Amino acid sequence: MTGGMAGRFVISEDGQGGYRFALVANNGQTLAVGEGFPSKVACVNGIETVRRNAPEAAIEDASGQEI
Length: 67
Fold this sequence. Notes:
By secondary structure, the chain is an alpha+beta fold.
């Protein structure tokens, strides 16, 4: 991706009184979806956790399949 921005986090209500976030690329593709959170504050905290951990996160392949 160009422009230095990897996309955006979109917060939405989940229809059950909670909140979810999606990481959406600049082209509109959903890259990841967070679990349900009981409050918007908890959802934002979940986003911040992803922001802190994702840049250095390793890929662990537990699928048992070759690429």
